[in-house]
Amino acid sequence: MKKSKIYSLLACVCLLMQSCLFSEEDVFDQSSAQRAMESVEECNNLLQSSSNGWLMEYYPGYSLEDFGGFNLLAKFDGGNVVLASEIATANYAVGETCTSLYKVSSFQGTQLSFDGYNELIHSFCEPEGYNAPGFAGDYEFIFRTISEDKLVLTGKKNGNMLVMTRLPEDADWSVMLSNINDIQTNAPYATYTLKIDGTEVTKFIRSNHTLTVTTKDEQGQPHTVSYPYIYTSEGIRMAEPMEFNNVSMTEFSWDNEKRSFICTDEGVNAEVEFYCPENYPKYLGRYRIKYGSTQRTVTLSQKIEGLTYTLSGMPNYNWEVQYNLNTECLEIQYQYLGTYGPYKVYLCPWDSQAGYLTWAEGTGLSGIITSESPMRIAFKDNGVYETADSFLYYAFNGSPSGTTAAGSVHQIPTPTLEKID
């Protein structure tokens, strides 16, 4: 009898549940698959609806502060996308277009995939070497918000930010990217001062497309804050408003005569003005360089004020020498020198004891002042390769790689500099 009551009760519950299920109206008029298909079609149609394409403001890296933003232009047609970029790559100049495949699909959201290789965007995704992710870029993006003239997407793997704005019909791609490139060319400096109402507020160091401020806390520990920006045809625009002394700043226009970015926000009197580091000029002049049994007279002249020098007098090629803002001394990094017959010659850091060399970006030797009068400078590995103490002129049959390496042209073992005047 007890079991019979339990079975009867369960039967009633099941009938009640069935009644509820059949009487409940569907929350959505369409299935999830139908909604996904419609979202894909809507986004794809929107991409193709701009006859002159889209401005893509692309922020690679794991956060906006890593590298700042880069401008690409894109036009979508059928299954193809035409891209142009503000930066040059190995095979494409600034503004030169590259066509590849793309698709819009549904997988964990509606996504845009640059699934056909396109150097202009995939170069952001390529690692620089072992445990070196480079720009940590994405080539698959999830649509987050869409409107007729603006799309916001985020990278599927690394969370990159991609903001797309519809281009006007009369926008000239070449002119846009040329103007942006001109700003970067005219404002190559690494050191700037922020002035508000004519008063200096702080100093910035420019790295990639960010302005960085480093201060020390009460314990003397450094604290760094980066303000990412993207170049525009007139100057720069901050990724997020930059605030100092209760003054918020976003848009800046470059003034070539003043060598300053002037804030154009309404009611704001502020500028980001170039200044030359105090110790940069002291390295200008003639030196005696010694390496192995060789010594030569060379000259360090200004290249980009406050940032780089040209070292002339070395065999066959001039070198670029950097002013290291942290050490306030010279630094010589891996670089392209020129041609040697059919070959391309690079200045490669070299471990003269072990016999190994490297052609990785950023590797090189940092200077150390060993004597002030006369000024003598020795060099050690800058910490990127870790064991370099010398340089090689090394020839490659194309872009540097193990398969294009042709051999050493000239050796510069353990160089030192002594200033003459």
Provide a descriptive summary of the structure in words.
With 421 residues, this protein is mainly beta. The chain contains five helices and 30 strands. The strands form four sheets. It has a nine-stranded antiparallel sheet. It has an eight-stranded antiparallel beta barrel with strand order 10-11-12-13-14-15-16-17. A hairpin with a 6-residue loop joins strand 16 and strand 17. The longest helix has 22 residues, at 2-23. The model is unreliable at 1-28 (pLDDT under 50).
Task: Report Rg.
Answer: 29 Å
Beta content comes to over 45%
What does the largest sheet look like?
Answer: 9 strands, antiparallel
Helix amount, in percent?
10-25%
The low-confidence runs, each spanning 5 or more residues with pLDDT under 50, are 1-28
The average pLDDT value, as a whole number, equals 92
Helical run tally: 5
The SS-based structural class is mainly beta
**Strand arrangement in the largest pleated sheet:** 4-3-2-1-9-8-7-6-5
Number of strands: 30
Task: Give the CA-based shape.
Answer: globular
- Cα-to-Cα separation, first versus last residue: 113 Å
Topology of helices and strands:
Layout: H1 2-23, H2 32-48, E1 54-59, H3 64-67, E2 70-77, E3 80-85, E4 98-101, E5 103-106, E6 110-113, H4 119-122, E7 140-146, E8 150-155, E9 161-166, H5 173-186, E10 191-196, E11 199-207, E12 210-216, E13 222-231, E14 235-244, E15 247-255, E16 260-263, E17 270-274, E18 285-291, E19 294-304, E20 308-312, E21 319-324, E22 329-333, E23 335-340, E24 343-351, E25 356-357, E26 364-372, E27 375-381, E28 390-396, E29 405-412, E30 416-419
Antiparallel strand pairs: 1-2, 1-9, 2-3, 3-4, 5-6, 6-7, 7-8, 8-9, 10-11, 10-17, 11-12, 12-13, 13-14, 14-15, 15-16, 16-17, 18-19, 18-30, 19-20, 20-21, 21-22, 22-26, 23-24, 24-25, 24-28, 26-27, 27-30, 28-29
